[in-house]
Write a structure and sequence with these properties.
By secondary structure, the chain is of the alpha/beta class. It has one domain: 3-Layer(aba) Sandwich (UDP-N-acetylmuramoyl-L-alanine:D-glutamate ligase). 38% of the residues lie in helices and 27% in strands. It has ten helices and 13 strands. The strands form two sheets. It has a nine-stranded mixed β-sheet, sandwiched between helices.
Length: 333
């Protein structure tokens, strides 16, 4: 995919004119960093001597951070618990200058926390604290009402579903948002998981990875062959009637499908340190491109590049817009 410097510069300039509503599962990404130099005498497990700890915004909030890093104004919508971790999440929002107006606090849920234990610069264990049940009736009604207000009053240029199967998004939420956005001609982009996979009918952009595509369509094949992959995408689009498909293929790159044309863009050579959060970056960049009607193959190339760049850094981190722009100007000319 080739693009002129003027085209790339215009895309990055336009990022700063956009607002994006991100709906999804809100999380705290907690890290414990330490050194390992011996095995426990109590069990065959490593002993980690803790050097530092850190908490970061995760899940849908990491998509918001990526959007903000691009210059897009994110509006975050989700549900947290009325607990210590929820208060920590609120402090992290404030730290990153993100608004709380789209965040519902529920006494019936716990705030999702993913704790990663990192020893000698390698992730050794992850501990998840979470609810995965759908919202109860009262919380759902409150959330749906809030989403309507955010869409109608804030007029986002794009709406993003960041679904981690933690229960905040269900078929009712999806149908309500898609219908509301359709009436206002707002594109809807989706980063799906298994539970609601086939509920995202007639959305603008649908972005699964290979595992999600296999599980969502209940396929036996690992989609290692290009012909199998293209057939699976065709089957997906027949079911969902979505406008655009973007399938991340890990080290194989990314596939973009639009109006029957399917293109695989190879991954760039990288020193991969950590793949955590790469999908968040891909959906943020691709959605910000969809919001300004960037040509699909160029959109996919930029998203592919962005996902690779964040894999070169440890932990879940947002994209560096200047780094992405510089690489785009170098590789896409």
């Amino acid at each position: 995919m080739k693009a002129t410097a003027a085209e790339i510069n215009k895309i990055f300039t336009n990022f700063t004119k956009l607002k994006a509503l991100v709906i999804g599962d809100l999380m705290v990404d907690s890290y414990v960093f330490g050194k390992v130099d011996r095995i426990s005498p109590e069990a065959p497990v490593p002993i980690i001597h803790v050097k530092s700890t850190e908490s970061r915004l995760g899940g849908a909030a990491n998509v918001a951070l990526n959007l903000a890093a691009l210059g897009v104004k994110p509006i975050l919508a989700g549900v947290i618990g009325a607990d210590t971790e929820g208060r920590q999440f609120a402090r992290l929002l404030k730290k990153h200058n993100l608004e709380e107006k789209g965040v519902v606090t529920s006494v019936n849920r716990v705030t999702t926390v993913k704790t990663r234990i990192v020893g000698n610069n390698m992730q050794m264990l992850r501990i998840d604290e979470e609810n995965t049940e759908t919202l109860d009736k009262a919380d759902k009604e409150k959330f749906l009402s809030l989403l309507s207000r955010l869409i109608l009053n804030d007029s986002p240029h794009v709406v993003i579903f960041e679904d981690y199967d933690k229960g905040v998004i269900d078929e009712d939420v999806i149908a309500h948002v898609v219908k509301t956005c359709k009436g206002r001609k707002i594109p809807v982009c989706v980063d799906p998981k298994k539970r609601n996979f086939l509920a995202y009918e007639k959305v603008t952009l649908f972005k699964p990875n290979l595992k999600e595509l296999r599980e969502g369509l209940k396929l036996d094949s690992n989609l290692g062959e290009e012909e199998e992959l293209l057939h699976a995408v065709k089957k997906l689009e027949k079911k969902l009637e979505n406008h655009l498909s973007l399938v991340t293929l890990s080290e194989r790159g990314i596939l973009v499908s639009h109006k029957g044309k399917k293109t695989i863009i190879p991954a760039h050579k990288r020193t991969i340190v950590d793949v955590s959060g790469a999908g968040d970056t891909v959906i943020a960049v691709s959605s910000a491109c969809v919001a300004q009607d960037v040509e699909p193959t160029l959109m996919a190339a930029l998203a592919n590049m962005a996902g690779g760049l964040v894999c070169e850094k440890p932990g879940v981190v947002p994209i560096d817009a200047e780094e992405l722009k510089a690489e785009a100007l170098k590789l896409l000319k």
